[in-house]
Design brief:
Chains A, B: This is Bifunctional dethiobiotin synthetase/7,8-diamino-pelargonic acid aminotransferase. The structure is a homodimer. By secondary structure, the first copy, chain A, is of the alpha/beta class. Chain A is built from 26 helices and 32 strands. The longest helix of chain A has 39 residues, at 320-358. At the A-B interface, α9, α10, α11, β11 and α12 of A face α9, α10, α11, β11 and α12 of B.
Chain lengths: 861, 861
């Protein structure tokens, strides 16, 4: 099927596209972290505990060990330096190492360099005047002075064949000897943002590496030294442990050997753990208090603790003797670091194989997943995975989690860290405690927020379970009881044998909807290969399944697509289009001709299953409001669903909203009841409920539903529960996330007065894609942008193949997507910035174009 | 039914029982914490940051405010003091307040006292000689010198009608000015254990309170000041933040206003959060660095940050002016503390009502739970709940979680804190990430530990889900596929319509077993009121359900009870007893006559459902090995289950072990396969899998089962998955707990060479209980001690009523149990000390005796 294509690139898109095309996809991304050699971050429990001495000691141990082969390189990076130029840690290493080299009689040649990249105006002037260098104002931009100073030194050794190298760099420097956030604020107006720091650091970490690797196997050790304590603010005010988190470099913690130092060291360690860092060793200066004993006990001997000899009291001491005394400690430390590095790499390399051998992945045909297709996720930071890649060179790259990890994800990096602290707190305060007949703060707060939020105006009870599927099973039990209660199925039930089957209850559901994988939830969906004997021998399909009308964007227009039954009935309506997406949701449509057609279609179907018959009657309506997710990201005409809900409620059939996917801003609103303009009797939540950190589900219900379970007998109560019902961690995560997502202070996407998210997907670009030759339909709503691909001959099988290879390419671009057959989608979080969303969309567009060209070329051959 | 009773109290039990009888149940327990007035703990980010100045400032603000009515009491407790008597923080308050009182022209009278309870020999001698007091060696025991010194002071005010009071106490003192763990080790041999410290503190917190309350509404503020930093070790070496955790007092954090102090303050705050503490305010001395700005930003303005004026440099300064300058800050701090206290109490009071209005508890008839029956759980610490109680006086009491919160719990207090840190770390490192086709460390480590542990020797794949019920549904799908594969049900399935039903598959299961609440899991259990139309209209019971033989202790003997079918067949066996519990598990029984009777009974039943019939054939065996938990804690004869397993495996019927309850040491072994002496094809785990902190479930399978899902089509794969499959937090908790429970270093109950837990329940006492007139049977195995009560006329209804009132009394004794009808049980964790278990058992025994007497009395009337 060939369609006319309109190529109307708006100018600004052309520009962005051009920029993107020029940025080859194989170039490293700003946060790519090389792993071909060890890189460690030096942290400290407090300021002035000797981080730089540890760095210097390591450089000496690494470069000057007589036993080691020369031809090594030690890279020392100091991203943030205050008190400059008086204090310069990179210069300390640059000047100390030659003396140590002479003292150790290092036989090989040694090349040393020290650079300073950017500094504040004050620091720059002070530095230049101290060196009698001229000040060049043109190098001063609004941010920082582009100092780019470099000094070198070379010590010729006896053995001239091998050369070792020390590279020292200070990335950003300020003059005042205060916390970086103060210095930056006072000297550079606080304009050095977090992204600037980590992009510059990333560049330095990758600097010259390609040529290094070409030059052969030179051993490299890289150290990134922080400023102050682990949670000291960086120039933007962000804590350093948060600022550097995207790299998640393994750490060395310089502890405190003084009185009170055990506490400070342990707390610093815990702050690092609370950001997901690994610490491979703790090292501190001896003050005669044997602080190592309680530290080792706390660490259960799993992290080595090393003790450095006491420093000389005299500040004019050149420390040469101290370095001599410390030599063995630094050797041990270096060996620990090298060993931890090689063990880590070995583990990362082995992981795909181990995974393929031990895991049984859900929804996965293992035979179709070769070892090299397994993604090794080293960590996540906000919306991004850090993925270990072992291509030309080992590195850790960033991939945007555009599948939102099975549609669960919401946190940005800040929320993730807040959730981590809350998880630690809640586990320490509660662990898990028994729920029935009890109350504890997280469960109560979560219930309050649910009933004031998504359940506002209709729900009055919260029932907790573990996942969407169990929430649905509970909802069905609630609905059937309510129905039986309303329709006198259960007159005097306690007198009867309750095991007796009264009537055969069915659900009314829509074709293409999906409610979970446990048997009860599966029974509420229409037959499909997923429900067949091969998968679920006990499935029978206990429902009446209606074919719904859907809407989508095609060729820049929103179009209504009617099911065949309706289609034949109302031919004149087959070309209904909408001017905008908003129009689809207008409640004015209730009085349209289409509304009455829908209404009679639904009534007819309900009449076929009227009232109570022993052979089967409809005891519940269950819908996924607005979007059928697993069924292929189909947007159902909300008018149709609204009428369906009202018809059922008129017949006293309880209505269940399955908001497991659609709830909590997934579609741009907290609850889709707001989009549909009607409320259910029962609704189910999961996935984004906890922000995406931990499983929890909730089934909300009206008081009328609840009342049908109240009585004098426990047997009338709802006897369904899971061990971790309303577990404290889940409820705490939910409480935090619910508040975070709807608070304009924390979620900048919220339009407060309208209780909706602003548009995250660029409309022009969406239209562009919907007009693309390879695209069959687009649904963009809230955090979702789904695209059905149209492959040659409308062959869905081919389409999925096409989708799979498209997504493979997109992973190279740093976008992690998963296909749903021939439907692909981008999914962000409620707090994701529209800028990031546009970048994702552009990358997708670029790959569509690329594939299109290849295909056309193939055709023309 | 009247039975002979043998009253043979062994002597040592008599002693324990006597002690227990004397200890009236209404006396406060060692850790009861009064809540009738605010009590706060003062923490500090480091040593020497002015905790005592804050305490003094608060005492002055609370007692000396002219606006406030007098007749107040300020209690200052310093549990741990080093550097004594030179340093005495309690004496500092005792001596400072009179000067401040004069300076403030405080109109009322003021009574002050300062006590010191215990000190080391060195500290005592030094103190006594400084006061010219004689040393009385008889007051010195192996631990500490019972100094019990008290000094008083009284300042008569103008208004003599009202009297305010300052009570200062130092609980334990050592002479050397070092960390308490060092001082205690050097001066008192490290014998002041954690329990000694907190029991003494608990006593001081409750001291004189009854008379206070009688005396009328005197306002009281109590402060407990820690030593050093938050994580500084106490006398035993335990970190203070861990040591004081059972009280979980709300805290004031004294921060650090110096350079580097932001980091130290934040880290200290995080260490407190990681132990479940609430911090209501941060306060620190100004050093001109505006540290409050980043601190407030970090705390998102949710915790107030207060800044004290700089201290005078001159150490001889009497600080009077500084206290004057600080007055407003201390007033604010005091008001924050009083407000936070009243808000907390209000919330705690309201919680039962709110819970009753908003929650929908599972398995609970709400009509039967009045507001006063709702338990408010303020926190948990190891095996204990901290429960808010609002009886005569408000307080927080401890209750041992003897229901193990629906059988999930395993952690002791140490593991709980380790898990909390791991949860924080894992949430920060991973949050949740997509599982299929991916690998990440916690999931891989968890799978490795499962397959090397409970799955050792048979399982080769781990399938993750969210709870026992979903794990069972997955297991059934696996088993049916394997069965269909082995029995050629699915010849050339891809060619067929996979929605077509090939055969009607059933499970073979035992009556009384229970596998979960979702429909698929319910179908595998025999009909009961829980499965009736009222509860689950879709249940049909897709199984062949056999009645199993059970074993239990009665009248000090283990007895076999046969099902009716077998009973009639083999009358001569009806009195089978066992000399010991171990004998029941002997594999030698395989060659007994009983074994062949079992075998033929099973074969007959299988033959009734032979091979493949369209009308229904048995596609899986599912059992709860050894103990039917929810069915009433019945121990099934393991010989019967072993033969059942073997017969099924001979018929190529896949065998599922439902180890959701029984796994991970619940029954004293990691896997009940070790008890049964045979292995399954598939096994399910949940509950204790994560140690009891977070939901996660796993289904393990053999390679042969896995292979029946391998093929070229995704449709042949197992298409069942939940959003949070193998979520990182769950896997991390499981990995930690699996290792913790089986490591003799961390679990002192492990008998390493036998891979079993030592006996946790005192056998004599168990026998005693099994011989009790009110007891019908006892099953004690591993962490479980279940007791079926026998009520008058064997009426189970009466029995449950009896059980309910018994358990109500036991809650007053600090034991939180839940009944299963007329079965009650104590359940501890794998690491619980046998001493604690014996205490629980004794309390239970005492209450049984008490109830028995009442009943006998009623009868005789």
């Amino acid at each position: 099927m060939l369609r006319l294509r309109r190529h109307h690139y708006p100018d600004h898109h052309r520009r962005i596209l051009l920029r993107l095309f020029h940025h080859s996809t194989f170039h490293p991304q700003p946060l790519d972290l090389p792993l071909c050699h060890p890189t460690y971050q030096i942290w400290s429990a407090n300021t002035s505990l000797g981080k730089t001495l540890v760095s210097a000691g390591l450089s000496s141990s690494f470069l000057l060990s007589p036993a080691s082969s020369a031809n090594k390189k030690f890279v020392y990076l100091k991203p943030i330096q205050t008190g400059y130029p008086h204090d310069s840690d990179s210069r300390f290493l640059f000047t100390k190492l030659p003396s140590l080299s002479l003292r150790r009689k290092f036989p090989s040649s040694l090349i040393l360099s020290n650079s300073i990249l950017f500094s504040s105006l004050f620091a720059a002037k002070s530095f230049l005047s101290s060196r009698d260098l001229p000040f060049q104002p043109e190098k001063f931009n609004s941010e920082m002075y582009d100092l780019n100073f470099r000094e070198e030194n070379r010590i010729s050794g006896e053995e001239d064949s091998s050369v070792s190298e020390l590279v020292c760099k200070t990335l950003f420097a300020w003059e005042e000897a205060v916390s970086p956030h103060l210095a930056a604020e006072r000297e550079s107006g606080g304009v050095v943002g977090d992204s600037k720091v980590i992009e510059t650091l990333g560049k330095c970490l990758r600097d010259g590496l390609e040529s290094e690797i070409e030059r052969g196997k030179r051993e490299i050790l890289c150290i990134v030294e922080t400023a102050g304590g682990v949670a000291s603010p960086g120039p933007s005010g962000s804590l350093q442990c948060d600022l550097y988190r995207p790299f998640r470099l393994p750490g060395i913690l310089v502890g405190d050997g003084r009185l009170g130092g055990i506490s400070g060291t342990i707390s610093a360690y815990e702050s690092l753990k609370l950001r997901g860092y690994d610490v491979v060793a703790v090292v501190f200066e001896d003050h005669g208090l044997v602080n190592e004993v309680p530290l080792m006990s706390y660490l259960r001997n799993r992290v080595p603790v090393l003790v450095l000899p006491p420093l000389p009291q005299d500040s004019s001491n050149d420390l040469m003797e101290w370095f001599d005394e410390s030599h063995n400690v630094f050797d041990s430390l270096k060996n620990i670091m090298l060993l931890a590095y090689s063990e880590r790499i070995q583990r990362l390399c082995d992981m795909p194989k181990r995974a393929g051998e031990l895991f049984w992945w859900p929804f996965t045909q293992h035979k179709l997943v070769p070892e090299e297709a397994v993604t090794v996720i080293d960590s996540r930071c906000g919306e991004n995975f850090s993925v270990y890649q072992d291509q030309k060179n080992k590195f850790i790259g960033q991939q945007f989690d555009a599948c939102a990890s099975w549609w669960t994800q919401g946190p940005d990096a800040t929320l993730q860290i807040e959730l981590a602290r809350d998880m630690g707190y809640t586990a320490a305060r509660f662990g898990h405690v028994m729920f029935p007949e009890n109350v504890y703060e997280p469960a109560l707060e979560c219930a309050e927020l649910l009933l004031q939020g998504v359940g506002k105006g209709w729900a009055s009870r919260a029932y907790f379970s573990d996942n969407g599927s169990t929430a649905i099973e509970i909802a069905l039990k609630m609905a059937f009881r309510k129905f039986s209660f309303d329709h006198d199925v259960l007159v005097d039930f306690l007198g009867k044998d309750t095991t007796e089957k009264c009537v055969e209850l069915k659900v009314l559901a829509l074709k293409g909807s999906y409610h979970g994988d446990t048997l009860g939830a599966m029974e509420a969906q229409a037959p499909s290969p997923y429900t067949g004997f091969l998968q679920q021998p006990w499935y029978s399909g206990r429902g009446l399944f209606l074919d719904p009308p859907t809407v989508f964007m095609y060729n820049s227009k929103w179009i209504l697509s009617l099911p065949e039954l309706l289609y034949s009935e109302i031919v004149e309506h087959k070309d209904i289009t909408f001017c905008s997406r908003d129009e689809i949701f207008y409640e004015e449509r209730d009085s349209s001709e289409l509304a009455s057609i829908y209404s009679s279609y639904i009534s007819q179907n309900l009449l076929q299953n009227p009232g109570l018959k022993v052979s089967g009657c409809i005891g519940a309506l269950i819908i996924e409001p607005v979007v059928h997710a697993a069924g292929g990201m189909h947007m159902v005409d909300p008018l149709f669903q609204r009428i369906l809900v009202k018809e059922c409620q008129n017949h006293k059939i309880p209505v269940i909203f399955d908001e497991v996917f659609t709830g909590f801003w997934r579609l741009g609103v907290e609850t889709t009841a707001d989009l549909l303009g009607c409320v259910p009797d029962i609704a189910c939540y999961g996935k984004l409920l906890t922000g995406g950190v931990i499983p929890l589900a909730a089934t909300l219900a009206t008081n009328a539903v609840f009342d049908s379970f109240v009585g004098d007998s426990k047997l009338k109560a709802l006897l369904h529960g899971h061990s971790y019902s309303a577990h404290a961690l889940g409820c705490a995560a939910a409480a935090k996330s619910i508040k975070w997502f709807k608070d304009p202070q924390t979620n900048h996407n919220i339009i407060p007065e309208r209780r909706i998210l602003r548009e995250l997907w660029d409309l022009d670009l969406i239209q562009q894609i919907s007009s693309h030759r390879t695209v069959q339909r687009v649904v963009a709503l809230g955090t979702l942008c789904a695209i059905e691909l149209q492959a040659a001959g409308c062959n869905a099988g081919y389409g999925s193949l096409y989708a799979a290879s498209l997504l493979k390419k997109l992973r190279e671009d740093g976008v992690y997507m998963r296909p749903l057959g021939n439907v692909i989608y981008l999914m962000c979080g409620p707090c994701s910035s529209p800028e990031v969303c546009s970048q994702l969309l552009l990358k997708l567009y670029q790959r569509l174009e690329e594939f299109d060209k290849v295909e056309e070329k193939l055709k023309s051959c």
